[in-house]
């Protein structure tokens, strides 16, 4: 079997590479074999050799490309080769769901190894906090944490990270968008300066590069298929007024043979209302948003993965980093505010080599935003006529800027004063 590795402009090319070519520790390879992992994805092909060579790395790859395994597998190999009781690796992520997902992947990959791990995130009770404290003082090999929860532990002074060898920032752009940059910089002050730092991001805006210069030492760089939807996604859009959206959703879903559907909305209020409307029609729909307790959110995701729930109604909390297989349809109830977010939303379907459908609802105010999306992906998305019973939708004229009506909040009328 021929293969060629060439480090040039931070790109590595392989010919017919399989996971066994990385010469992973036998216990790790046993886990990969049991899970049916044979061929690496492009991000895995490129990142794994760099990480095994102990180089710092900044990697840009969209959702669904296999980033999690790209950084977990080489770390697990190192830990299998050199076992330790100390905390060796810290993975910082923006959301609780992503922390749990990475920890679950860790447990799968490391099943035949002696590597220990723990996910640390907010929204849990005091007993869980004590478990986290024990892991941070006595040492779990890999800690997966959200910034706020980790800072709560660090501020108490008992966390032992002096033997740490690897810092991984996953979904770095989203963490910056959520305002975690100060927490991240503060966290690094508790870590050894002599460490390997890996940064994974779906987009690469200037602020990410600025952060990278502060944290990474002469990093290698990888960019994989940025800003392009997966090839298996069939995209379409409806021109629709807001008052027509719920009826269009019901028209698309009611009476259909559904597998798994995710509907993304911009606000919690609309998520809750759409959940009620779908349930009234007898559809198996559940909502997930930040008002739910963590155990409730986990139950919703668990039921969706097991197909007990067919339709997931969600805010953008799920647009990145949540790995759910076999999603046949993604609906953008609202046009995403950022063109890059469109890629992440529709990336929930057509994972790996599968296919899927992504539909977007465009009202009269969001047409320019959708034109920016079309410019970003380099192609026009087909506009589908509305069902006749819903009436006419707005005309697609993105070159004409339509201002949203201004509604003044907390306005009141001054009562007229009585005449003296």
In short:
This protein has helices at residues 26-35, 42-52, 67-81, 96-109, 126-138, 147-154, 172-177, 181-188, 206-215, 242-253, 268-280, 294-305, 339-346, 367-377, and strands at 57-61, 89-92, 117-120, 142-145, 166-169, 196-201, 220-224, 233-239, 261-264, 285-288, 311-314, 329-332, 356-362, 382-383.
Q: Would you give an account of this structure?
A:
- It is a single chain.
- The protein is α/β, with parallel strands linked by helices.
- Helices cover 36% and strands 15% of the residues.
- The chain contains 14 helices and 14 strands.
- The strands form 2 sheets. It has a 7-stranded parallel beta sheet, with helices on both faces. Strands 10-11-9-12-13-8-14 form a 7-stranded parallel beta sheet, sandwiched between helices.
- α13 (339-346) links the parallel β12 and β13 (356-362).
- α3 crosses α4, α6 (147-154) crosses α8 (181-188) and α13 packs across α14.
- The protein is globular, with a radius of gyration of 24 Å.
- Mean pLDDT is 83; it is low at 1-15 and 406-420.
């Amino acid at each position: 079997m021929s293969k060629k590795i060439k480090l040039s402009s931070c790109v590595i090319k392989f010919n017919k590479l399989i996971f066994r070519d990385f010469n992973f520790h036998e216990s790790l390879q046993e886990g990969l074999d049991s899970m049916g992992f044979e061929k690496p994805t492009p991000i895995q092909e490129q990142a794994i050799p760099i990480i095994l060579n102990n180089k710092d790395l900044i990697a840009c790859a969209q959702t669904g490309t296999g980033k999690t395994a790209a950084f977990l597998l080489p770390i697990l190999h190192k830990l299998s080769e050199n076992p330790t009781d100390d905390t060796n690796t810290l993975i910082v992520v923006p959301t609780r769901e992503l922390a749990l997902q990475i920890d679950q992947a860790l447990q799968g990959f490391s099943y035949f190894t002696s590597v220990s791990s723990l996910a640390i995130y907010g929204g849990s009770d005091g007993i869980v906090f004590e478990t986290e404290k024990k892991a941070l003082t006595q040492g779990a090999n890999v800690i997966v944490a959200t910034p706020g929860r980790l800072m709560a532990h660090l501020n108490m002074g008992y966390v032992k990270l002096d033997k740490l060898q690897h810092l991984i920032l996953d979904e770095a752009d989203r963490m910056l968008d959520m305002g975690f940059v100060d927490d991240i910089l503060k966290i690094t002050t508790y870590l050894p300066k002599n460490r390997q730092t890996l940064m994974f991001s779906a987009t690469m805006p200037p602020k990410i590069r600025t952060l990278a210069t502060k944290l990474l030492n002469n990093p290698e760089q990888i960019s994989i298929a940025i800003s392009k939807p997966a090839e298996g996604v069939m995209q379409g859009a409806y021109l629709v007024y807001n008052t027509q959206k719920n009826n269009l959703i019901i028209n698309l879903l009611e009476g259909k043979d559904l597998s798994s559907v995710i509907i993304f909305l911009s606000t919690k209020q609309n998520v809750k209302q759409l959940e009620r409307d779908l349930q009234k029609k007898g559809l198996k729909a559940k909502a997930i948003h930040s008002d739910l307790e963590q155990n409730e959110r986990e139950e919703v995701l668990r039921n969706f993965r097991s197909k007990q729930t067919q339709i997931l109604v969600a805010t953008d909390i799920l647009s990145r980093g949540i790995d759910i297989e076999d999603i046949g349809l993604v609906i953008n109830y609202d046009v995403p505010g950022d063109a890059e977010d469109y890629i992440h939303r529709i990336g929930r379907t057509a994972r790996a080599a599968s296919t899927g459908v992504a539909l977007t609802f465009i009202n009269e105010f969001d047409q320019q935003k959708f034109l920016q999306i079309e410019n970003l992906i380099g192609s026009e998305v087909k506009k589908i006529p509305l069902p006749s019973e819903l009436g006419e939708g707005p005309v697609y004229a993105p070159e004409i800027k339509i201002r949203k009506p201004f509604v003044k909040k907390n306005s009141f009328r001054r009562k007229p004063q009585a005449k003296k």
